[in-house]
Amino acid sequence: MAPADDLLSDPEIAQAYEDVRSDKAPLTWMVLKYASATSDSLKLAQTGEGEISELCESLGNDEAAYAYVRVKLGNDEYSERTKFVFVIWQGPQTKIMRKAKMSFQSGQVKQVIRAYAVEIQTSDTKELEDEAVKMKLRKAMGANYDRQGTNY
């Protein structure tokens, strides 16, 4: 297998990662896809400035991809927190060999995309809906100060 440097050799990937992490940059997500059906190299496939639902539009049923997303949580401007989500996408029709390779390669991707609160490995876009992702983030954060679903 190729080392992480070869797998993620596209310099645009590192820049997009930094842009998604930066509060000063407008990017809120990025998607990495394999350069071809037989390649192990990843390329920056798409970036965006919108919600995670916009990102989901770029994930195909027969594709394998990695995504990195900035999510804001909070009830108001004073309690707002920024969290990051790492997504390992394996569309329901992704080839078995690609899925097998991803189990190893995802570790290499994590050497580059290191800072995230939650990892979501899925083949179902319902798991990437805004509220589902925010719920996973709240659980990962521990204390939940939202009054939704509590009996005070």
UniProtKB/TrEMBL annotation:
Superkingdom of this protein's organism: Eukaryota
GO cellular component, one term: cortical actin cytoskeleton
Residues annotated as transmembrane: none
Subcellular location as annotated: Cytoplasm, Cytoskeleton
BP GO annotations: regulation of actin filament polymerization
Location, primary (coarse class): cytoplasm
A GO MF term: actin filament binding
Keywords: Actin-binding, Cytoplasm, Cytoskeleton
Keyword Cytoplasm recorded: yes
Domain ADF-H: 5-138
Similarity remark: Belongs to the actin-binding proteins ADF family. Coactosin subfamily.
Protein name from the UniProt record: Actin depolymerizing protein
